[in-house]
Amino acid sequence: MEFTASQIASFVNGKIIGDENAVITGVSPIESGENGHLSFVAQERFADFIESSKCSVLIVSEKLLTKKDYSKTIIVVEDAYLSFQILMNLYKEMQGRKSGIEDGAVFHETSVVGENVYVGAFTCVSEKVKIGDETQIYPHVYIGKNVKIGKNCVLYSGVRIYDYCVIGDNCIIHSNTVIGSDGFGFQLTKEGYQKIPQLGNVVVEDNVEIGSNCSIDRGTIGSTIIGKGTKIDNLIQIAHNVKIGTNNVIAAQAGIAGSTVIGDWNMIGGQAGIVGHIQIGNQVKIQAQSGVNSSTKDGDILYGSPAISASDYRRNYVHFRNFTEIVSKMNEMAARIKELENNSKD
Amino acid sequence: MEFTASQIASFVNGKIIGDENAVITGVSPIESGENGHLSFVAQERFADFIESSKCSVLIVSEKLLTKKDYSKTIIVVEDAYLSFQILMNLYKEMQGRKSGIEDGAVFHETSVVGENVYVGAFTCVSEKVKIGDETQIYPHVYIGKNVKIGKNCVLYSGVRIYDYCVIGDNCIIHSNTVIGSDGFGFQLTKEGYQKIPQLGNVVVEDNVEIGSNCSIDRGTIGSTIIGKGTKIDNLIQIAHNVKIGTNNVIAAQAGIAGSTVIGDWNMIGGQAGIVGHIQIGNQVKIQAQSGVNSSTKDGDILYGSPAISASDYRRNYVHFRNFTEIVSKMNEMAARIKELENNSKD
Amino acid sequence: MEFTASQIASFVNGKIIGDENAVITGVSPIESGENGHLSFVAQERFADFIESSKCSVLIVSEKLLTKKDYSKTIIVVEDAYLSFQILMNLYKEMQGRKSGIEDGAVFHETSVVGENVYVGAFTCVSEKVKIGDETQIYPHVYIGKNVKIGKNCVLYSGVRIYDYCVIGDNCIIHSNTVIGSDGFGFQLTKEGYQKIPQLGNVVVEDNVEIGSNCSIDRGTIGSTIIGKGTKIDNLIQIAHNVKIGTNNVIAAQAGIAGSTVIGDWNMIGGQAGIVGHIQIGNQVKIQAQSGVNSSTKDGDILYGSPAISASDYRRNYVHFRNFTEIVSKMNEMAARIKELENNSKD
Questions:
Q1: What is d(CA C256, CA C230) in angstroms, rounded to the nearest whole number?
Q2: Within B13-52, where are the H helices?
Q3: Is the dihedral of CA C320, C322, C326, C328 positive or negative?
Q4: Do B184 and C252 lie within an 8 Å CB cutoff?
Q5: Closest-CA residue of chain A to B230
Q6: pLDDT in tens, A29-54
């Protein structure tokens, strides 16, 4: 790609200081700017980079400018962060979307594929599958029978969707994530564990993004549900019959055990675990590595394993850090009590 | 699928109250029953659903019935839970098994494939592989050279089995699980870490189920072993030369480090970690998120990181939760001692 | 494979005691030696196995020998461990490397493939990809556009490399690892979370090994970097814009959150978590399951969640284990203080 400063300025309605024909061929983080690249300065604490950055063109929030001229081209906007995001979105769109059916993709004759769909090489589409318009499915994806995939989704290479699962519109699923593998259900017998058939499915609602290498198990009967707008990072475990509401954010390597119900707008930290068969309310924050083993109220902030109120955990943990000192103090107190007792006998 | 109440009653030897021609087209969990669906009531605490459920047909344990007539069709059995499981198993069987070799599957000329085997599109079967009768292998599976797979197994899409690994009979391996990747073994040198070749394999014994996205590394020399009847959930790490006995249950995201030996009938909780080179006995329970760093005796119940007796952990954790209060009390005691000391000087 | 004792002795420059024509067909760990197999004894504590092992041929460190004759063939060397490693490396090499392009591999016409490269069936190589000489890419690998892969790499089956990522020379990446999936970046709005485009890439430097089922996200802008010689185990999460230095060792199921910078020669334990936007120095050791939430100095040894000095953690944890006893003692002290106070009123 190649853009001039004046092209960029026109995208974000900015004013140019310097060479409007300056050309950029890439973007850099401001801390490691490169010659010929674009970056942005939106915060006071990065203002020194306006002078020192090696970038050829910078988008800068108006309030951060102190001079009339700079050694590089400046595009002046009201909010440089916002403008930069607009540009990144534009750039992403300009990279284009894939379309067409590649050689080697396999479709069952009963599958129904929408308009302007991309299906990559060696992807398998089983019987009675429906794929919505504008959806992009990369190579090596497996889609089991009776699966429904909505419009404008992206499924990256190696995604596996087991039979009867449902994916909404505008969903993104990253590579090697598995949707609909069997729930972990066994009946104990004297001879060993007997498998309980897992006959349900997974329903992923609209606008959900799921990272790479996640496992989302199908319900035993009924559905495992990922609610609208929820965002799931990488390497996450969602067990059978979990119901997750709308607009949750779940960080990498978290795990949610079977049949737990999670409300809306919660934030679940990385490597956190939630036991089965409990209710998490709304707007709950669970700190990374916490282990939640009982139901929560709306707005709770939790930390620890087992998790308690985060402020209590932090306060108690300060004492834990001083535990050796506390015990010394206690021993010294014991000695002083002994002394007092001896004295009082006199 | 479509069944009448009388068909279902005949499968489980039940007695019908109501319309024997009532038709069901699906199954529901009792809490979210749907018209036209089947569900079951086996416990007192769900007895209200016998009246209120929207399901058209319910299987109910005899002792829970209090009336002669209901608004829906009831199939009366001795133990509704058991009867329902029989039905689920029947239903699973009726969905049929896949068979035949799909176009695009690739076989080395020296591989040997049993009777009535299914191999999906784009699955690669390398030299000298043996696949037992009735085994089903979905698309996109990679099977390295000299691998042996037993009878009646199911390998879902995206499973990878490295060279020389052995899978027993009646095993199920879910999508994107990797069996036999190199153990994590390096020799420290001044220039960096030198790879130690990993020349062993993985042996998965009969009746093992392994969830999706697991990593089971090959032995350095000798085998990593998963014993008969052991069930492994999703996203689990089993390191090189681990030996796991029979009938263990290991929950999602647990990890077991190199060369550790695990007995029989243990339960390992989600996100638990077990260090390398230790022995876990039999019938041990390890709570979720625990970190076991020393060998255990049979029947131990462990919790915490590092793990200690679960009852001790819980009792101590209650004090941890009150730590701020405990410290306050201690400070108050210190003041009272001071006071006593001052008084005694008088 | 089949080797005679004299062949083996010649590889490691050893002296034979016993039958120089003894044939071995495999290798065993010393604890579970098999007839016809080779093993080694390098340490005093395994010396009893020189007599008792069922192996037909043993490589033994000279200093451990006490007799002139043994019931099996002995190959005498100075350091048996070293000699055995030389043999394992030789054996690994003798297994040969794969080469050639298998039927079913797909290449974009603009891709450039080096000499003596192996590409397995159903692997997809996108536009402008460059693959270096001697590199081996197994079946079912997806390589996005503009990806560069160096010389002498091994990418196992099911690896996914998103667009624009760069892999150095001599790298090994195990099955189902994903390089370059989108970072987990969203902007909160009233309607829900808006995706922030992830336009950067991942750079994996030379001599890096990455285990199976890892997720390494691309930078938002700029690169996520895995430094030269760093070794990464299985099921590990590396978030967007993380920079990892040289010669680090990261154990299974660890996770590193966004933009964190990690120096050289660190050891990160299994299931450890490191929060985003901090600096880890050099030669730091992070114990398994720890949660590091602030920057560290060189040489720190850390433990706990949140992590503190490992020696402090261990010392404090001893008190935690005795917490119930400590509280009892405190209560008893309180009673004695009360008693003293009562006495002093008399």
A1: 14
A2: 49-52
A3: positive
A4: yes
A5: A193
A6: 898 889 999 999 999 999 999 999 99
pLDDT in tens, B126-179: 999 999 999 999 999 999 999 999 999 999 999 999 999 999 999 999 999 999
pLDDT at residue C1, as a whole number: 67
The ipTM estimated for the assembled molecules is: 0.93
Instruction: Inform me whether the C-beta atom of residue B193 falls under 8 Å from chain C C-beta atoms.
Output: yes
DSSP string across C280-295: E-SS-EE-TT-EE-S-
Tokens matching residue B215? 């990593």
What pLDDT does residue A95 have? Answer: 79
Nearest to C30 by CA among C60, C75, C69: C60
Chain-chain contact of B252 with A239 (C-beta, under 8 angstroms) = yes
Element (H, E) at B324: helix B323-345
Q: Position of tokens 């706990």?
A: C304
CA–CA distance, A148 with A152 (Å, rounded to integer)? 13
Q: Which helix (H) or strand (E) holds A26?
A: strand A26-27
User: pTM of this prediction?
Assistant: 0.94
Residue type, A307: A
Using the Cα atoms of residue C324, residue C329, residue C330 and residue C334 in order, give the sign of their dihedral.
Answer: positive
| DSSP labels, B61-111 | EGGG---S--SSEEEEES-HHHHHHHHHHHHHHHT----EE-TT-EE-TT-
pLDDT in tens, B277-319: 999 999 999 999 999 999 999 999 999 999 999 999 999 999 9
A28 C-beta neighbours (distance < 10 Å), count? 21
DSSP 8-state assignment for residue A172? E
Amino acid making up residue C193: Y
Residue that has been written with the tokens 């605490």 in this structure = B45
DSSP annotation string for C191-236: S-EEEPP---EEEE-TT-EE-TT-EEEPPSSSEEEE-TT-EE-SS-
Q: What pLDDT band is residue B91 in, cutting at 50, 70 and 90?
A: confident
Place of tokens 């079912």: C140
Cα separation of the two ends of chain B? 94
Closest CA to B175 of B146, B129, B139: B139
Higher pLDDT residue, B345 or A55? A55
Instruction: Quote the CA–CA distance of B261 and B284 in Å, as a whole number.
Output: 13
What pLDDT band is residue C346 in, cutting at 50, 70 and 90?
A: low
**What pLDDT score does A346 carry?**
64
Report how far residue B121's alpha carbon sits from residue B91's, in angstroms, rounded to the nearest whole number: 26
Q: Is the minimum CB–CB distance between C153 and chain B shorter than 8 Å?
A: no
- pLDDT at B262 exceeding the cut of 80: yes
Q: Which whole number is the average pLDDT over C204-217?
A: 98
Please give the backbone phi and psi of residue A74, each rounded to the nearest 5 degrees, phi first. Answer: -115, 135
Q: Cβ of B341 and A336 within 8 Å?
A: yes
- Which of helix, strand or coil describes residue A112? strand
Q: Tokens representing A141?
A: 């994806």
What are the structure tokens assigned to B12, written together? 């489980």
- How many CB atoms lie under 10 A from the CB of residue C307? 23
d(CA C121, CA B125): 11
Q: Which of A253, A325, A326 best probes binding to C when mutated, by most C CB atoms within 10 angstroms? A: A253
Which portions of chain A are predicted below pLDDT 50? Answer: none
A311 to chain C, minimum CA–CA distance in Å? 13
Cβ neighbours of A221 in B, within 8 Å: 27-29, 39, 88
Q: Is some CB atom of chain A closer than 8 A to the CB atom of B333?
A: yes
Catalytic residue among A108, A240, A277, A319: A240
- Residue A120 near chain B (CB below 8 Å): no
Give residue A1's pLDDT. 67
Answer whether C148's CB lies under 8 Å from C169's CB: no
C187 chain-A contacts, CB cut-off 8 A: 85
Does A277 participate in catalysis according to the annotation? no
Q: State percent of chain B over pLDDT 90.
A: 89
